[in-house]
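Q: what does this look like with magnesium ion bound?
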Amino acid sequence: YVKDKGKNGFQIFNSDMNHDFYRKMVLEKELRQAIERDELSLHYQPQLNLESGRVVGMEALVRWDSQELGRVSPGEFIPLAEETGLILPVGEWILRRACRQNKEWIDQGYEPLRVAVNISQMQFMNPKFSDLVLQVLEETGLPAEYLELEITENIAMTDEQRVISVLSKLTKNGVKVAIDDFGKGYSSLGYLNKYSVDYLKIDKTFIQDLPYHPDNIAIVKSIISVAEHLEIELIAEGIENEKELQFVRELGCQYAQGYYIGHPTPANNFEENVLGKIGQFRINGIT
Ligand code: C2E
Ligand code: MG
Ligand code: MG
Ligand code: MG
């Protein structure tokens, strides 16, 4: 690596930057081949209705097992995929796989669940996005009501007219929309009543230590009152124990997701342990 200081006396690279730079280069090179090498897969995490105690949905979460690099977390490669534009083919693969899998499960006779798919900003802003979604639904035969798209607040905050038209086209066709990581962005709430949004997912940082954390209690309560007012349903994410579950349930939150209910798990395991036991699936603390 470049050890010498530049002639103006500033050190341009240090070994950390160098390391990050090469890591990114290698990641990008490997990610370009990940689809054709069949290195991507989806894990599914259950979402629980807090009134009935039943699983009503699942979030699809991408996993990358690179033959060169081993398991790379989506927290690392999704931002890179966005920077490089690779999110378009990768995101399309994820959407298609999630819809196809969900349709297969419905066809096998399991109780139909909604599958939530994370959509990154660059995907959403692509002019062909809404057509792609409708095309994938048609191609896979999944009824639109069993697809939910998770977008983040930063998407919701850009180019309002465009977001309104994309969201209304999709929701008119029956697709559900959730705002992910709600409360984490520093957005105004004004956009919420302009957009067709079905769910808000309360960011997991506000769920942590809930019964004991006064700031988080205040934040969660205010999110709940906004959602009630706008008639948007709430999903609490990152539920890790019974206390957190009970707390959000008592406050009036309709749905919950988190390790306490179930970890994200590969399709075959989800099928066996969640779908296959859906009537018996019980969580301590409800029903
Ligand atoms: P997210 O969409 O907010 O997903 C929730 C993350 O929280 C997941 O991490 C999940 O495994 C984790 N999680 C679930 N329950 C708990 C819990 O009880 N406690 C804690 N501490 N964490 C929990 P994961 O799978 O590593 O994904 C991280 C982020 O990467 C996602 O956040 C999402 O922004 C992005 N991502 C993951 N899959 C996809 C994808 O298919 N497409 C896109 N565009 N982004 C994705
Ligand atoms: Mg999500
Ligand atoms: Mg997210
Ligand atoms: Mg989230």
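The first strand starts at residue 40 and ends at 49. Residues 59, 118, 150, 180 surround magnesium ion (ligand 2) (CB under 6 Å).
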